[in-house]
Specification:
This protein has one domain. The chain has 4 helices and 6 strands; from the N terminus they run E-H-E-E-H-E-H-H-E-E. By secondary structure, it is α+β, with helices and mostly antiparallel strands.
């Protein structure tokens, strides 16, 4: 198995591409048409985060699936590594966060900037997001 974090700059464009080029990757409605909104079967149950039209997803793939994802238009694999149990996710995130180009794409979807919230008592708290938007169990 291979763990990967993918970046899709424009998900609606990607979904349109899949509808014509790889419809088997889109979930179908009961009548056999493509479900709306589009659901990519390989992403449906994995951690993902969205900002506007852009998306990041953490995927666990077979070798064949990984090859397919590497070759899909509109998809950029930011990092991938063989799944080795605990610590696999750390390897992926380390790769991304230590390469400025990859980090820029990552943070364009998932902000690492601290932000403030005010609780019901009026107390202001600063929150620092975790560096990982998600992992798959055992990673």
């Amino acid at each position: 198995m291979i763990d990967a974090i993918i970046y899709i700059q424009d998900f609606p464009t990607f979904a349109e591409y899949l509808a014509t080029e790889a419809p088997q990757l889109l979930q179908k409605a009961e009548d056999g048409s493509i479900a709306q909104p589009p659901v990519v079967t390989g992403i449906a149950r994995t951690p993902a985060t969205i900002n506007g039209n852009s998306m990041l997803a953490y995927l666990r793939l077979t070798d064949e699936e990984a090859e397919q994802w590497r070759n899909l238009e509109h998809v950029e694999v930011l990092a991938e590594t063989p799944f080795n149990g605990a610590g696999t996710a750390d390897t992926l995130y380390h790769t991304i966060l230590n390469d400025q180009t990859l980090k820029d794409k990552y943070t364009s979807v998932y902000s690492l900037d601290p932000y403030t919230i005010t609780d019901e008592d009026g107390t202001v708290h600063q929150v620092t997001p975790p560096t990982k938007f998600g992992v798959i169990g055992g990673a």
